[in-house]
Amino acid sequence: MSEHHPTPALRAEGLVKTHHGEGAPARAVRGVDLCVARGEFVAVTGPSGAGKSTLLHLLGGLQRPDSGSIWLDGECTDSYSEARWAVERRRRIGIVFQFFNLVSNLSVADNVELPALLAGVPPKRARAERETLLAELGLDGKERSMPGELSGGEQQRVALARALVNHPPLLLADEPAGSLDSRGTREVMRLLSRFHQRGQTIVLVTHDARLASAADRVISFFDGRIADDAELTGTPSRRVGASGVLELRD
Ligand SMILES: Nc1ncnc2c1ncn2[C@@H]1O[C@H](COP(=O)(O)OP(=O)(O)OP(=O)(O)O)[C@@H](O)[C@H]1O
Ligand SMILES: [Mg+2]
After folding, report:
1. Tens digit of pLDDT for each residue in 175-200?
2. Which residues, by range, are in coiled-coil regions (predicted)?
């Protein structure tokens, strides 16, 4: 991967983030170096509270690190303003959040088209993109539904469609199959694999070993740090053993 494209899609160095809330300060990210090649599919797993979502928020510019730097396509983001990050998210980073994915008082169609319209895509094209994506996700016929009328899995797929509508080179997805049953998880997995095969760079945060097994590489996150970073080998069906436990190469 990096042989073909020397400039990584995403690079982070020395990322540190402590949350100061009501309780004791939470040292969510404690020094993370990360390089994601173009076209690479990286899964980030780890226990609850390990700092996975915080890391993803940092990588998407939704939160600022206390220290450390992030490069997008080789460009240092240190000097980016909030507005600049917002533009980059519209143009080249699709994000699926762990919670609050959809605007509840907008239809499915409007939810998916919104980022395209905000990015200045002509309405006709935004609509065409939306139709293509929803069809691909098995959601045709749901355009006029409101998010509250959809199942959890359908909502997650709409959120993915919304994150992908601008063809962002980089997709950051936080538990896109969280709370889904195995069928829903399979659907999300198939979808991510399909985009990956077309060259989509993906950073996926998940608890789910099956979902992680679709990735090229699995990063285990623990106590705000990368505890393990392993390339996966073999076909997807071989990667998950009978126990459902990931089989990683040493
Ligand atoms: N906005 C915030 N204010 C204060 N503390 C926070 C905030 N966000 C996260 N934390 C704390 O930072 C730590 C890491 O949280 P984070 O959400 O990144 O974990 P996570 O790995 O995504 O967990 P999960 O798997 O449950 O989603 C936790 O201790 C959490 O309580
Ligand atoms: Mg989280």
Report:
1. 877 767 777 778 788 888 988 998 99
2. none
How far is 250 from 248, CA to CA, in rounded Å? Answer: 6
* Residues facing 96 on adjacent strands: 173
Q: Domain-by-domain residue ranges, the chain?
A: 38-62+81-233
**Alpha helical stretches, state H, the chain:** 52-59, 82-92, 108-118, 123-136, 152-164, 182-197, 209-212, 236-239
Tell me the CATH number of domain 38-62+81-233, given options 3.40.50.2300, 3.40.50.300, 3.30.530.20, 1.10.10.60: 3.40.50.300
What span, in angstroms and rounded, lies between the C-alpha atoms of 91 and 87? Answer: 6
Whether pTM > 0.70 for this model: the answer is: yes
For the segment 26-81, what is each residue's pLDDT rounded down to a tens digit?
A: 999 999 999 999 999 999 999 999 999 999 999 999 999 999 999 999 999 999 99
**Residue 53: CB within 6 Å of ligand 1?**
yes
Mean pLDDT of the chain: 87
Cα of 52 from ligand 1 centre, angstroms:
8
Tokens 């088209």 appear where?
Answer: 113
Question: Hey, whose CA ends up nearest to atom 18 of ligand 1?
Answer: 51
CA of 163: how far to CAs of 49, 140, 155, in Å?
24, 17, 12
Is the CB of 79 within 6 Å of ligand 1?
no
Residue 241 has pLDDT above 90, yes or no: no
pLDDT at residue number 179 = 67
The answer, yes or no, to whether any atom of ligand 1 lies below 6 A from the CB of 48, is yes
